[in-house]
Amino acid sequence: MRRDCVPAALIKERSEGGSDVTAEEAPGSGPTVLRILLGAQLRRLREGKAITREDAGWEIRASGSKISRMELGRVSFKERDVADLLSLYGVADLKEREALLSLARQANNPGWWHHFGDILPGWFQSYLGLEAAATLIRTYEIQFVPGLLQTPEYARAVIMLGHAGANADEIDRRVELRRQRQTLLNRPEPPQLWAVIDEAVLRRPIGGVEVMKAQIEALIEASKQPNVRLQIIPFNAGGHAAAGGPFAILRFPEPELPDVVYVEQLTSAIYLDKREDVDHYAIAMERVCIDADPPNHTPEILEKLLHEVGRPG
Predict the structure, then answer these.
(1) Is the pLDDT of residue 96 over 80?
(2) Which residues of 250-272 are buried (b: 16+ CB within 10 A; e: fewer)?
(3) Whole-structure pTM over 0.70, yes or no?
(4) Which of 31, 228, 253, 203 lies closest to 149, judged by CA?
């Protein structure tokens, strides 16, 4: 295994322990992650008192399945419900109660993408929340340049492929949404982006020759950023572990949050956080990193591809 492929600082194991995280300790977290954090803490409190989900649901005039969805961070929180559950769980300390109630209020605040809600499916809004809060984003792509690295012109061409019937205003808004997503790579404490791209992505002239050339030039510049690690799998690598399709693995600063695997489909997406599922994708990611050329070769490879774009085969 190449040491430059799997830096320990990027994929180190989480500690099994870790203190509770409140809203004050996670100021950059979006509402999606805050809901997950609050749900995890409510689950621990409930289990600590040996209270069933059904009994907890009864307390807030809901079902056990509603408690399950709350504990997984998949629904919004009513502050009254959280207060009632805290009383049921024996949380009497005013400071602790207020910290958790504050977390509930913040978890209900809309994310920055709220203004694009009319063009965004709910399943993708969840991903935007996770992406905004991640400290490490590992992604493997076989069809397109990763969205966080797309130029506006390339993004427009990709969007038009999937939304051919959309009007010009909607296309413009979708391009702007992608641009706003990309700002996270330039914020004061940006996440690490580790992208592995199949060579076919860079030889597919999305948007035409000039758009593709500009995209490759942008990737050359992106590969120089300290928080971006970019690798390319050449055609001569043959088959590889992740041949089934693209995916992303997200890691968060809060030690109690598991890594999440995101697998997008045509009309929905799958989110996986069970340890065995995440491990399966992490191993596949590690294998494609090994199959790919080392990241320090990426600028040279991209320069060569830049001069080959548009040439007859």
Answers:
(1) yes
(2) bbbbbebbbbbbbbeeeeeeeeb
(3) yes
(4) 228
